């Protein structure tokens, strides 16, 4: 008996009419925040026409909003965020045809080196804006397909997840008595990803060969170094919207292996820590996971940076632990102070308004992440030190004795002490802590100039109901 064909319910399942996706018009590059008729990709079937979904007008518009919000430097073509929409509109019909026909060739990425905290260099690959847009469009339709199968222990570059949750997961393991940390460092992970292994894992969920072919082209697009094109036979260039998701796809096998062994762990991108109860178990786990990474994923472990330590000596995403309390690491705190020292340096020839602006941005950004630390003791002294450095900056900016004396008197300092301090030949740092400078440039006055309080930011994070 023949099965009777049933028309699928309207609105469910993928659109199977290949080539019927709406052609992207120049309006795709408009800066409208709202997107009507947004395509539901959360229920997409892995064998659906993902390519048409990725290139649809509403998906590309959302992708452009995200690329524009992320900002960033231009690629090898030099086209900036501001100039891109005007360039894109007349080019898009031809580019879309090339993408659908499979003849589109991504441009090489631009190599950028940034300093790492350990003195090394991190290699970034900056794609041109067009390729960032296409990658973001692909990520938006692929994400809902991979997201449900990713491990609950994975926190990096996933919606609704962040580094603080990963750190909290490690703390929960410590509370349960798992106080030995196995900290494995993957040696140049993003530079050594095996393309065949990665594409095989992507193909487990994605059946649209056009999508697979384009991802492969992005992996092999090459990199431009000092004007010379270098082939990329392995690795995933950091800097593109697809890279974080592809990293999670490959390392999901590691997550599943650790889950199968019932380990307590958390992973954020290529940073992960496993918690165990004893040193003996830690050595066994370190050896077996190193072997798994090398054999199954063809990834190398950096033995020099990998270690087995107690929880109060481990470092995970810039945090460590004292008992069950979360703290920033000393390395992170010293880097914070060094940056503040640079932003409050006397020799930085900028206006005080600009200096205050950069200080606010940096302090709020740092506290937004590291303010999760429950270590309060050094904060009041740090606030006092920062205010003293700002008084020193104002003192140098006023330059001449007459200017300094008049400013202190105008700010309410005692005239006698203002004159004594203004005529003194002592150094800037010493004079920044005199009665005249402190009674003139008060804490409240510095706050009015735009200086934020690290202490108050910490209190707002930990005691939001009592923060003033």
Structural class: alpha+beta
**SSE sequence, one letter per element:** HHHEEHHEHHHEEHEEHEEEHHHHHHHHH
Number of E strands = 10
The main pleated sheet reads as: 4 strands, mixed
Helix content: 40-55%
Termini separation: 76 Å
How would you describe the overall organization of this protein?
There is one protein chain. With 468 residues, the protein is an alpha+beta fold. It contains 19 helices and ten strands. The strands form three sheets. Strands 2-1-4-5 form a four-stranded mixed sheet, with no helix packed on it. Helix 12 runs parallel beside helix 19 (454-462). The termini are far apart.
Defining key terms:
4-stranded mixed sheet; disordered N terminus; 4-stranded antiparallel sheet; 468 residues; alpha+beta
Record the SSE blueprint:
Layout: H1 50-54, H2 57-70, H3 84-101, E1 109-115, E2 121-126, H4 129-146, H5 163-175, E3 180-185, H6 189-192, H7 195-202, H8 209-219, E4 223-225, E5 228-230, H9 243-260, E6 264-268, E7 271-276, H10 279-296, E8 307-310, E9 319-322, E10 325-328, H11 330-343, H12 352-370, H13 378-398, H14 401-410, H15 415-423, H16 428-431, H17 435-440, H18 443-449, H19 454-462
Parallel strand pairs: 1-4
Antiparallel strand pairs: 1-2, 3-7, 3-8, 4-5, 6-7, 9-10
Helix pairs in contact: 2-4, 7-9, 12-19, 14-15
